[in-house]
Specification:
Layout lengths: L15 H7 L4 E4 L11 E2 L5 E2 L4 H12 L3 E5 L5 H10 L3 E3 L5 H12 L6 E4 L6 H6 L2 E4 L5 H6 L2 E2 L8 H12 L3 H6 L3
Helix pairs in contact: 1-7, 2-7
């Protein structure tokens, strides 16, 4: 894995081989805890769960969807907060309570008639390992379990819940050659 980074005020410069693979991605699949969140499981005194999602990640997901890249979530836990976040972001493919993520991923790819080679998967722990290894672009975060970092094709600089999804969104847009034009619409 390469962690080449030009300057914090510029988009990350990814290796050419990663950009080539990323250019073919049609579906980004995300884990939740440790990827879309920092991985903390917080409960109130009444037993309600609290999750903190990163706003930058959400904008990145919306930009991908505008570009025609589908986004899905596969998570091992069941959470109404995850369902709400998926609904708020317009993510149509949400699978919760899925311990075997590769089985869930294959089912989703069959449903979408999409080969695993055209999928990017962002995960951080052992239940994600088989999916990370099976897809065209397996990605992880720096706070992931060491074995996941060893088997992922690349690793974000941002930690899970702190902009990692946005970094991957920028990668996919950059690889398609549309990041600059997408950002230009906001200038």
């Amino acid at each position: 894995m390469t962690d080449t980074y030009a300057h914090p005020d510029e988009p990350r410069q990814w290796p050419e081989d990663i950009l080539q693979i990323a250019a073919t991605v049609e579906l980004l699949v995300l884990d939740v805890d440790g990827v879309m969140t920092r991985g903390d499981v917080v409960f109130t005194a009444s037993g309600d769960e609290i999750k903190a999602f990163n706003i930058l990640d959400g904008q990145g997901i919306k930009l991908l969807q505008r570009e025609g890249i589908r986004v899905a979530i596969i998570t091992g836990r069941e959470s109404p907060l995850t369902a709400r976040r998926a609904r708020d972001l317009g993510i149509k493919h949400l699978q919760q309570n899925r311990e075997d993520k590769l089985v869930a991923l294959r089912e989703l790819c069959n449903e979408l008639n999409l080969p695993l080679a055209k999928v990017a998967y962002l995960g951080d722990d052992l239940p994600d390992l088989s999916a990370i290894r099976a897809v065209g672009l397996g990605i992880t975060v720096p706070n992931a379990y060491w074995l996941i970092r060893r088997h992922a094709r690349c690793c974000t600089l941002a930690r899970g819940g702190e902009g990692a999804v946005r970094e991957v969104s920028d990668l996919l847009l950059q690889a398609r050659g549309s990041l600059d034009a997408t950002l230009e619409t906001y200038l």
